[in-house]
Protein backbone atom coordinates (compact mmCIF):
# COMPACT_ATOMS: atom_id res chain seq x y z
CA UNK A 1 0.00 0.00 0.00
CA UNK A 2 1.29 3.45 -0.94
CA UNK A 3 0.64 6.63 1.04
CA UNK A 4 1.08 10.04 -0.52
CA UNK A 5 2.99 12.82 1.25
CA UNK A 6 1.51 16.18 0.30
CA UNK A 7 2.25 19.83 1.01
CA UNK A 8 0.32 20.92 4.13
CA UNK A 9 -1.61 24.17 4.51
CA UNK A 10 1.06 26.84 4.60
CA UNK A 11 -0.77 29.66 6.31
CA UNK A 12 -2.76 32.74 5.59
CA UNK A 13 -2.34 34.05 2.01
CA UNK A 14 0.57 31.66 1.40
CA UNK A 15 0.08 29.46 -1.65
CA UNK A 16 3.45 27.94 -2.40
CA UNK A 17 6.74 26.86 -0.85
CA UNK A 18 10.17 25.63 -1.82
CA UNK A 19 11.46 22.20 -0.79
CA UNK A 20 14.46 23.15 1.33
CA UNK A 21 15.73 19.90 2.85
CA UNK A 22 14.91 16.21 2.71
CA UNK A 23 15.85 14.49 5.96
CA UNK A 24 15.22 11.08 4.41
CA UNK A 25 16.17 9.60 1.08
CA UNK A 26 14.47 6.94 -1.05
CA UNK A 27 14.80 3.55 0.59
CA UNK A 28 14.96 4.90 4.14
CA UNK A 29 12.58 3.51 6.74
CA UNK A 30 10.30 6.11 8.31
CA UNK A 31 8.02 6.16 11.34
CA UNK A 32 4.67 7.88 11.71
CA UNK A 33 5.13 11.63 12.35
CA UNK A 34 8.88 11.42 11.71
CA UNK A 35 10.08 14.55 9.93
CA UNK A 36 10.57 13.86 6.23
CA UNK A 37 11.42 17.24 4.81
CA UNK A 38 11.38 20.97 5.38
CA UNK A 39 9.52 23.50 3.25
CA UNK A 40 10.52 27.13 3.15
CA UNK A 41 8.05 29.92 2.52
CA UNK A 42 8.64 33.63 2.20
CA UNK A 43 8.44 33.87 5.98
CA UNK A 44 9.44 30.71 7.79
CA UNK A 45 10.24 27.03 7.50
CA UNK A 46 7.54 24.32 7.66
CA UNK A 47 8.34 20.73 8.65
CA UNK A 48 6.45 17.91 6.93
CA UNK A 49 5.90 14.77 9.05
CA UNK A 50 5.37 11.27 7.69
CA UNK A 51 1.66 10.37 7.52
CA UNK A 52 2.44 6.64 7.84
CA UNK A 53 5.15 4.16 8.78
CA UNK A 54 7.02 2.34 6.03
CA UNK A 55 9.71 3.12 3.47
CA UNK A 56 10.21 6.34 1.55
CA UNK A 57 9.72 4.83 -1.90
CA UNK A 58 9.97 7.95 -4.06
CA UNK A 59 10.70 11.66 -3.74
CA UNK A 60 8.55 13.54 -6.25
CA UNK A 61 9.54 17.11 -5.35
CA UNK A 62 13.30 17.45 -4.99
CA UNK A 63 15.10 20.03 -2.93
CA UNK A 64 14.84 23.45 -4.51
CA UNK A 65 11.55 22.79 -6.29
CA UNK A 66 8.63 25.16 -5.80
CA UNK A 67 5.43 23.40 -4.79
CA UNK A 68 1.86 24.53 -4.19
CA UNK A 69 -0.47 23.67 -1.33
CA UNK A 70 -1.50 19.98 -1.45
CA UNK A 71 1.10 19.20 -4.12
CA UNK A 72 2.59 15.70 -4.04
CA UNK A 73 5.98 15.57 -2.31
CA UNK A 74 6.70 11.87 -2.03
CA UNK A 75 5.27 8.37 -1.77
CA UNK A 76 5.63 6.03 1.19
CA UNK A 77 5.37 2.25 0.83
CA UNK A 78 3.69 0.97 3.97
CA UNK A 79 4.56 -2.32 5.69
CA UNK A 80 7.74 -4.31 6.36
CA UNK A 81 8.07 -5.47 2.75
CA UNK A 82 8.77 -1.93 1.68
CA UNK A 83 12.11 -1.85 3.44
CA UNK A 84 13.91 -3.68 0.65
CA UNK A 85 14.68 -0.92 -1.89
CA UNK A 86 18.17 0.48 -1.75
CA UNK A 87 18.59 4.23 -1.27
CA UNK A 88 18.39 6.03 -4.60
CA UNK A 89 20.92 8.66 -3.61
CA UNK A 90 23.73 6.18 -3.04
CA UNK A 91 26.12 5.03 -5.74
CA UNK A 92 28.49 2.07 -5.85
CA UNK A 93 31.95 2.75 -4.49
CA UNK A 94 34.64 3.20 -7.14
CA UNK A 95 37.19 0.42 -7.46
CA UNK A 96 40.04 2.64 -6.30
CA UNK A 97 38.17 3.92 -3.22
CA UNK A 98 38.98 2.54 0.26
CA UNK A 99 37.09 -0.66 0.86
CA UNK A 100 35.61 0.59 4.11
CA UNK A 101 33.98 3.60 2.48
CA UNK A 102 31.46 1.37 0.69
CA UNK A 103 29.40 4.00 -1.11
CA UNK A 104 28.94 7.67 -1.68
CA UNK A 105 25.98 9.80 -0.69
CA UNK A 106 24.86 12.94 -2.47
CA UNK A 107 24.27 16.07 -0.39
CA UNK A 108 21.26 17.79 -1.94
CA UNK A 109 19.68 21.23 -1.59
CA UNK A 110 16.75 20.80 0.81
CA UNK A 111 13.26 22.16 0.34
CA UNK A 112 13.61 25.92 0.63
CA UNK A 113 10.04 26.93 1.37
CA UNK A 114 6.96 28.29 -0.26
CA UNK A 115 7.58 30.23 -3.49
CA UNK A 116 11.33 29.88 -2.95
CA UNK A 117 13.02 28.07 -5.83
CA UNK A 118 16.68 28.90 -5.30
CA UNK A 119 19.22 29.81 -2.66
CA UNK A 120 22.78 31.03 -2.39
CA UNK A 121 25.50 28.98 -0.71
CA UNK A 122 26.68 31.41 1.94
CA UNK A 123 29.10 29.33 4.06
CA UNK A 124 30.71 25.92 4.04
CA UNK A 125 31.60 24.77 7.55
CA UNK A 126 33.52 21.77 6.23
CA UNK A 127 36.05 21.45 3.46
CA UNK A 128 36.89 18.62 1.11
CA UNK A 129 38.61 15.74 2.83
CA UNK A 130 37.22 16.41 6.30
CA UNK A 131 35.40 13.72 8.23
CA UNK A 132 31.75 14.45 8.98
CA UNK A 133 29.21 12.90 11.32
CA UNK A 134 25.63 12.19 10.33
CA UNK A 135 23.41 15.27 10.82
CA UNK A 136 26.47 17.49 11.34
CA UNK A 137 25.90 20.86 9.66
CA UNK A 138 27.86 21.02 6.42
CA UNK A 139 26.90 24.38 4.98
CA UNK A 140 24.41 27.22 5.17
CA UNK A 141 22.16 28.37 2.34
CA UNK A 142 20.64 31.82 2.19
CA UNK A 143 17.19 32.40 0.72
CA UNK A 144 15.07 35.52 0.48
CA UNK A 145 13.57 34.77 3.90
CA UNK A 146 15.74 32.70 6.14
CA UNK A 147 19.02 30.83 6.29
CA UNK A 148 18.81 27.07 5.85
CA UNK A 149 21.36 24.74 7.40
CA UNK A 150 22.20 21.59 5.45
CA UNK A 151 23.05 18.57 7.62
CA UNK A 152 25.15 15.62 6.50
CA UNK A 153 22.85 12.78 5.35
CA UNK A 154 25.45 10.20 6.38
CA UNK A 155 28.73 9.82 8.25
CA UNK A 156 31.94 9.66 6.26
CA UNK A 157 34.24 12.06 4.45
CA UNK A 158 33.26 15.15 2.47
CA UNK A 159 34.89 13.99 -0.74
CA UNK A 160 33.74 16.74 -3.11
CA UNK A 161 32.06 20.16 -2.92
CA UNK A 162 30.08 20.83 -6.09
CA UNK A 163 28.62 24.23 -5.19
CA UNK A 164 31.09 26.66 -3.65
CA UNK A 165 30.29 29.71 -1.53
CA UNK A 166 28.46 32.36 -3.49
CA UNK A 167 26.96 29.83 -5.90
CA UNK A 168 23.22 30.03 -6.60
CA UNK A 169 21.58 26.62 -6.38
CA UNK A 170 18.08 25.41 -7.09
CA UNK A 171 15.95 23.27 -4.82
CA UNK A 172 16.86 19.65 -5.35
CA UNK A 173 20.27 20.54 -6.75
CA UNK A 174 23.40 18.71 -5.64
CA UNK A 175 25.78 20.43 -3.21
CA UNK A 176 28.41 17.86 -2.44
CA UNK A 177 29.32 14.18 -2.20
CA UNK A 178 30.11 12.26 0.98
CA UNK A 179 32.16 9.06 0.93
CA UNK A 180 30.60 6.84 3.56
CA UNK A 181 32.49 4.78 6.12
CA UNK A 182 35.44 5.26 8.43
CA UNK A 183 37.93 4.38 5.69
CA UNK A 184 37.05 7.51 3.78
CA UNK A 185 38.05 9.72 6.68
CA UNK A 186 41.66 8.64 6.62
CA UNK A 187 42.30 9.47 2.97
CA UNK A 188 41.98 13.27 3.17
CA UNK A 189 44.85 13.65 5.62
CA UNK A 190 47.21 11.89 3.28
CA UNK A 191 45.85 13.91 0.38
CA UNK A 192 46.50 17.17 2.19
CA UNK A 193 49.98 16.10 3.21
CA UNK A 194 50.85 15.26 -0.39
CA UNK A 195 49.40 18.48 -1.79
CA UNK A 196 51.96 20.90 -3.24
CA UNK A 197 52.77 23.95 -1.17
CA UNK A 198 51.46 26.25 -3.88
CA UNK A 199 48.00 24.67 -3.89
CA UNK A 200 45.76 27.29 -2.26
CA UNK A 201 42.40 25.69 -2.94
CA UNK A 202 41.97 24.42 0.61
CA UNK A 203 44.94 25.79 2.47
CA UNK A 204 44.76 26.63 6.17
CA UNK A 205 43.96 30.30 6.82
CA UNK A 206 46.77 32.47 8.09
CA UNK A 207 46.96 33.72 11.65
CA UNK A 208 45.41 37.01 10.61
CA UNK A 209 42.15 35.29 9.79
CA UNK A 210 41.32 34.78 13.47
CA UNK A 211 40.90 30.96 13.49
CA UNK A 212 42.99 28.22 11.91
CA UNK A 213 39.91 26.09 11.16
CA UNK A 214 38.04 28.78 9.24
CA UNK A 215 37.82 28.19 5.51
CA UNK A 216 38.03 31.27 3.29
CA UNK A 217 35.57 31.70 0.44
CA UNK A 218 36.77 29.99 -2.75
CA UNK A 219 36.30 33.22 -4.71
CA UNK A 220 38.57 34.97 -2.21
CA UNK A 221 41.28 32.32 -2.59
CA UNK A 222 41.15 32.65 -6.35
CA UNK A 223 41.34 36.44 -6.12
CA UNK A 224 44.34 36.26 -3.76
CA UNK A 225 46.13 33.91 -6.14
CA UNK A 226 45.44 36.16 -9.12
CA UNK A 227 46.52 39.32 -7.26
CA UNK A 228 49.62 37.66 -5.80
CA UNK A 229 48.91 38.68 -2.20
CA UNK A 230 49.20 36.53 0.91
CA UNK A 231 46.40 35.63 3.31
CA UNK A 232 47.85 37.73 6.16
CA UNK A 233 47.37 40.86 4.03
CA UNK A 234 43.62 40.30 3.93
CA UNK A 235 41.30 41.26 6.81
CA UNK A 236 38.36 38.84 6.67
CA UNK A 237 34.88 40.25 7.19
CA UNK A 238 32.98 36.97 6.89
CA UNK A 239 31.82 34.70 9.63
CA UNK A 240 34.59 33.90 12.14
CA UNK A 241 37.05 36.04 10.17
CA UNK A 242 36.51 34.25 6.86
CA UNK A 243 37.99 36.15 3.91
CA UNK A 244 35.53 37.10 1.19
CA UNK A 245 36.15 38.28 -2.35
CA UNK A 246 35.35 41.88 -1.34
CA UNK A 247 38.01 41.71 1.40
CA UNK A 248 40.64 40.77 -1.19
CA UNK A 249 39.57 43.69 -3.39
CA UNK A 250 40.05 46.07 -0.46
CA UNK A 251 43.45 44.59 0.34
CA UNK A 252 44.56 44.97 -3.29
CA UNK A 253 43.36 48.58 -3.34
CA UNK A 254 45.20 49.32 -0.08
CA UNK A 255 48.41 47.75 -1.38
CA UNK A 256 48.28 49.72 -4.62
CA UNK A 257 47.63 53.02 -2.86
CA UNK A 258 50.51 52.59 -0.37
CA UNK A 259 53.38 53.26 -2.85
CA UNK A 260 51.58 56.30 -4.20
CA UNK A 261 51.26 57.70 -0.70
CA UNK A 262 54.95 57.13 -0.03
CA UNK A 263 55.93 59.18 -3.07
CA UNK A 264 54.19 62.26 -1.62
CA UNK A 265 53.30 63.96 -4.89
CA UNK A 266 53.69 67.71 -5.01
CA UNK A 267 50.11 68.35 -6.06
CA UNK A 268 47.02 66.19 -5.48
CA UNK A 269 45.83 64.59 -8.66
CA UNK A 270 42.20 64.75 -9.66
CA UNK A 271 40.19 61.68 -8.67
CA UNK A 272 39.25 59.37 -11.52
CA UNK A 273 36.50 56.81 -11.87
CA UNK A 274 38.89 53.90 -11.36
CA UNK A 275 39.90 55.22 -7.94
CA UNK A 276 36.27 55.53 -6.90
CA UNK A 277 35.52 52.02 -8.09
CA UNK A 278 38.43 50.66 -6.05
CA UNK A 279 36.99 52.23 -2.89
CA UNK A 280 33.49 50.92 -3.50
CA UNK A 281 32.13 47.70 -2.14
CA UNK A 282 29.42 45.81 -3.97
CA UNK A 283 27.53 43.26 -1.88
CA UNK A 284 24.60 41.26 -3.21
CA UNK A 285 21.38 41.79 -1.29
CA UNK A 286 20.39 38.85 0.88
CA UNK A 287 17.23 37.10 -0.15
CA UNK A 288 15.56 38.22 3.05
CA UNK A 289 16.43 41.83 2.27
CA UNK A 290 15.10 41.45 -1.28
CA UNK A 291 11.80 40.12 0.07
CA UNK A 292 11.52 42.90 2.66
CA UNK A 293 12.11 45.46 -0.08
CA UNK A 294 9.50 43.90 -2.33
CA UNK A 295 6.83 43.63 0.38
CA UNK A 296 7.36 47.19 1.60
CA UNK A 297 7.04 48.51 -1.93
CA UNK A 298 3.94 46.40 -2.51
CA UNK A 299 2.39 47.92 0.63
CA UNK A 300 2.98 51.42 -0.72
CA UNK A 301 1.59 50.51 -4.12
CA UNK A 302 -1.53 48.80 -2.77
CA UNK A 303 -2.75 50.82 0.22
CA UNK A 304 -3.76 54.49 0.31
CA UNK A 305 -1.28 55.01 3.12
CA UNK A 306 -1.36 58.12 5.28
CA UNK A 307 0.31 58.98 8.59
CA UNK A 308 -0.96 61.09 11.46
CA UNK A 309 1.17 62.22 14.40
CA UNK A 310 0.79 63.11 18.05
CA UNK A 311 2.99 63.23 21.13
CA UNK A 312 2.62 61.68 24.54
CA UNK A 313 3.93 62.76 27.93
CA UNK A 314 5.53 59.60 29.38
CA UNK A 315 5.77 60.96 32.94
CA UNK A 316 3.01 58.81 34.45
CA UNK A 317 3.99 55.59 32.68
CA UNK A 318 7.62 56.02 33.71
CA UNK A 319 6.65 56.75 37.32
CA UNK A 320 4.35 53.73 37.45
CA UNK A 321 7.00 51.51 35.92
CA UNK A 322 9.70 52.70 38.33
CA UNK A 323 7.40 52.18 41.29
CA UNK A 324 6.45 48.60 40.51
CA UNK A 325 9.17 47.16 38.24
CA UNK A 326 11.04 45.35 41.04
CA UNK A 327 7.88 43.80 42.51
CA UNK A 328 6.67 42.95 39.01
CA UNK A 329 9.86 41.12 38.10
CA UNK A 330 10.01 39.33 41.44
CA UNK A 331 6.45 38.02 41.10
CA UNK A 332 6.22 37.33 37.36
CA UNK A 333 9.83 36.63 36.42
CA UNK A 334 9.69 39.20 33.62
CA UNK A 335 10.90 42.78 33.30
CA UNK A 336 8.26 45.47 33.11
CA UNK A 337 8.90 47.47 29.95
CA UNK A 338 6.99 50.06 27.97
CA UNK A 339 5.72 47.66 25.30
CA UNK A 340 3.03 46.18 27.54
CA UNK A 341 1.68 49.68 28.25
CA UNK A 342 1.58 50.52 24.55
CA UNK A 343 0.00 47.18 23.69
CA UNK A 344 -2.72 47.69 26.28
CA UNK A 345 -3.27 51.29 25.15
CA UNK A 346 -3.65 50.17 21.53
CA UNK A 347 -6.11 47.43 22.50
CA UNK A 348 -8.11 50.06 24.37
CA UNK A 349 -8.13 52.37 21.34
CA UNK A 350 -8.92 49.61 18.84
CA UNK A 351 -12.15 48.85 20.69
CA UNK A 352 -13.31 52.39 20.01
CA UNK A 353 -12.00 52.56 16.44
CA UNK A 354 -12.43 48.98 15.13
CA UNK A 355 -11.69 49.86 11.50
CA UNK A 356 -8.01 50.27 12.40
CA UNK A 357 -8.09 46.60 13.41
CA UNK A 358 -9.89 45.53 10.21
CA UNK A 359 -8.73 44.61 6.72
CA UNK A 360 -10.01 44.84 3.17
CA UNK A 361 -10.85 41.63 1.33
CA UNK A 362 -11.96 42.48 -2.20
CA UNK A 363 -15.04 44.64 -1.76
CA UNK A 364 -15.58 43.53 1.85
CA UNK A 365 -14.30 44.95 5.12
CA UNK A 366 -13.37 42.22 7.60
CA UNK A 367 -13.68 43.42 11.20
CA UNK A 368 -11.69 41.42 13.75
CA UNK A 369 -13.31 40.83 17.13
CA UNK A 370 -9.91 40.04 18.59
CA UNK A 371 -6.48 41.64 18.61
CA UNK A 372 -3.45 39.75 17.36
CA UNK A 373 -0.66 42.25 17.91
CA UNK A 374 2.43 42.22 15.69
CA UNK A 375 5.56 43.47 17.45
CA UNK A 376 8.22 44.43 14.90
CA UNK A 377 11.67 43.19 15.87
CA UNK A 378 14.99 43.95 14.25
CA UNK A 379 17.33 40.98 13.73
CA UNK A 380 20.77 40.66 12.15
CA UNK A 381 19.03 39.22 9.08
CA UNK A 382 16.32 41.88 8.79
CA UNK A 383 12.97 42.95 10.18
CA UNK A 384 10.52 40.28 11.35
CA UNK A 385 7.13 40.70 13.01
CA UNK A 386 6.20 38.00 15.53
CA UNK A 387 2.52 38.04 16.48
CA UNK A 388 1.13 38.01 20.03
CA UNK A 389 -2.31 36.42 19.79
CA UNK A 390 -5.36 37.59 21.71
CA UNK A 391 -3.50 40.32 23.56
CA UNK A 392 -6.88 41.84 24.43
CA UNK A 393 -7.28 38.93 26.86
CA UNK A 394 -3.76 38.96 28.32
CA UNK A 395 -2.25 40.61 31.37
CA UNK A 396 0.76 42.92 31.47
CA UNK A 397 2.89 39.98 32.67
CA UNK A 398 1.68 37.67 29.89
CA UNK A 399 2.49 40.32 27.28
CA UNK A 400 5.97 41.08 28.66
CA UNK A 401 6.89 37.39 28.89
CA UNK A 402 5.73 36.68 25.35
CA UNK A 403 7.50 39.73 23.91
CA UNK A 404 10.78 38.69 25.56
CA UNK A 405 10.47 35.07 24.46
CA UNK A 406 9.49 35.80 20.85
CA UNK A 407 12.07 38.56 20.56
CA UNK A 408 14.85 36.19 21.57
CA UNK A 409 13.74 33.50 19.14
CA UNK A 410 13.39 36.09 16.39
CA UNK A 411 17.03 37.11 16.85
CA UNK A 412 18.04 33.43 16.83
CA UNK A 413 16.00 32.78 13.67
CA UNK A 414 13.83 30.22 15.47
CA UNK A 415 10.38 31.69 14.83
CA UNK A 416 7.92 29.44 13.06
CA UNK A 417 5.83 30.58 10.13
CA UNK A 418 2.63 30.44 12.17
CA UNK A 419 4.11 32.83 14.74
CA UNK A 420 4.48 35.56 12.13
CA UNK A 421 1.03 35.27 10.56
CA UNK A 422 -2.44 36.47 11.40
CA UNK A 423 -1.60 39.83 12.97
CA UNK A 424 -4.37 42.45 12.95
CA UNK A 425 -2.32 45.48 14.07
CA UNK A 426 1.39 46.19 14.48
CA UNK A 427 3.60 48.24 16.80
CA UNK A 428 7.08 49.26 15.64
CA UNK A 429 9.51 50.76 18.14
CA UNK A 430 12.09 52.82 16.30
CA UNK A 431 12.92 54.61 19.53
CA UNK A 432 15.25 51.82 20.62
CA UNK A 433 17.55 52.90 17.79
CA UNK A 434 17.24 56.60 18.60
CA UNK A 435 14.58 57.59 16.05
CA UNK A 436 12.84 60.82 17.04
CA UNK A 437 10.11 60.66 14.38
CA UNK A 438 9.29 58.45 11.42
CA UNK A 439 6.43 57.21 9.24
CA UNK A 440 6.10 53.42 9.54
CA UNK A 441 4.94 51.40 6.53
CA UNK A 442 1.89 49.16 6.80
CA UNK A 443 2.22 45.41 7.18
CA UNK A 444 -0.42 44.12 4.66
CA UNK A 445 -3.20 43.18 4.90
CA UNK A 446 -3.36 45.17 8.14
CA UNK A 447 -4.82 48.66 8.07
CA UNK A 448 -2.80 50.27 10.85
CA UNK A 449 0.66 50.39 12.41
CA UNK A 450 1.80 52.46 15.39
CA UNK A 451 5.30 53.89 15.41
CA UNK A 452 6.95 54.51 18.79
CA UNK A 453 9.97 56.79 19.05
CA UNK A 454 12.70 58.02 21.36
CA UNK A 455 11.73 59.48 24.73
CA UNK A 456 13.31 62.91 24.98
CA UNK A 457 12.92 65.65 27.54
CA UNK A 458 11.43 68.81 26.05
CA UNK A 459 10.06 72.03 27.55
CA UNK A 460 6.29 71.77 27.92
CA UNK A 461 3.70 74.13 29.38
CA UNK A 462 1.92 72.43 32.30
CA UNK A 463 -0.59 74.48 34.35
CA UNK A 464 0.90 77.67 32.98
CA UNK A 465 4.46 76.68 33.91
CA UNK A 466 7.27 75.65 31.57
CA UNK A 467 8.64 72.32 32.78
CA UNK A 468 10.83 69.60 31.31
CA UNK A 469 8.82 66.50 30.44
CA UNK A 470 9.80 63.13 28.89
CA UNK A 471 8.00 63.29 25.56
CA UNK A 472 7.58 60.76 22.77
CA UNK A 473 6.27 61.33 19.26
CA UNK A 474 3.71 58.79 18.10
CA UNK A 475 2.93 58.03 14.45
CA UNK A 476 -0.04 56.08 13.14
CA UNK A 477 0.17 54.99 9.52
CA UNK A 478 -3.16 53.76 8.23
CA UNK A 479 -4.93 52.66 5.08
CA UNK A 480 -7.12 55.59 4.08
CA UNK A 481 -9.30 53.27 2.01
CA UNK A 482 -10.83 51.89 5.19
CA UNK A 483 -9.82 54.32 7.96
CA UNK A 484 -11.00 57.93 7.77
CA UNK A 485 -8.91 60.78 9.14
CA UNK A 486 -11.28 61.23 12.07
CA UNK A 487 -10.91 57.58 13.08
CA UNK A 488 -7.12 57.70 12.81
CA UNK A 489 -6.83 60.86 14.90
CA UNK A 490 -9.29 59.49 17.47
CA UNK A 491 -7.27 56.28 17.76
CA UNK A 492 -4.04 58.16 18.38
CA UNK A 493 -5.65 60.50 20.90
CA UNK A 494 -7.03 57.51 22.85
CA UNK A 495 -3.56 55.94 22.95
CA UNK A 496 -2.13 59.24 24.18
CA UNK A 497 -4.81 59.60 26.89
CA UNK A 498 -4.30 56.04 28.12
CA UNK A 499 -0.55 56.48 28.42
CA UNK A 500 -0.69 59.89 30.08
CA UNK A 501 -3.13 58.52 32.65
CA UNK A 502 -2.61 54.73 32.90
CA UNK A 503 -5.44 54.45 35.39
CA UNK A 504 -7.81 54.81 32.45
CA UNK A 505 -6.72 51.36 31.29
CA UNK A 506 -7.83 49.80 34.57
CA UNK A 507 -11.25 51.47 34.39
CA UNK A 508 -11.67 51.02 30.62
CA UNK A 509 -12.13 54.74 30.02
From TrEMBL:
It comes from the Bacteria. Residues 215-252 form the Peripheral subunit-binding (PSBD) domain. Its cofactor is (R)-lipoate. One of its GO terms (biological process) is L-lysine catabolic process to acetyl-CoA via saccharopine. CDD domains: lipoyl_domain (cd06849). Residues 258-275 have a biased composition (Low complexity). Its EC number is 2.3.1.61. One of its GO terms (molecular function) is dihydrolipoyllysine-residue succinyltransferase activity. Pfam families: 2-oxoacid_dh, Biotin_lipoyl, E3_binding. Residues 2-77, 104-179 form the Lipoyl-binding domain. Keywords: Acyltransferase, Lipoyl, Transferase, Tricarboxylic acid cycle. E2 component of the 2-oxoglutarate dehydrogenase (OGDH) complex which catalyzes the second step in the conversion of 2-oxoglutarate to succinyl-CoA and CO(2). Forms a 24-polypeptide structural core with octahedral symmetry. Part of the 2-oxoglutarate dehydrogenase (OGDH) complex composed of E1 (2-oxoglutarate dehydrogenase), E2 (dihydrolipoamide succinyltransferase) and E3 (dihydrolipoamide dehydrogenase); the complex contains multiple copies of the three enzymatic components (E1, E2 and E3). Belongs to the 2-oxoacid dehydrogenase family. This is Dihydrolipoyllysine-residue succinyltransferase component of 2-oxoglutarate dehydrogenase complex. It comes from Thalassococcus halodurans.
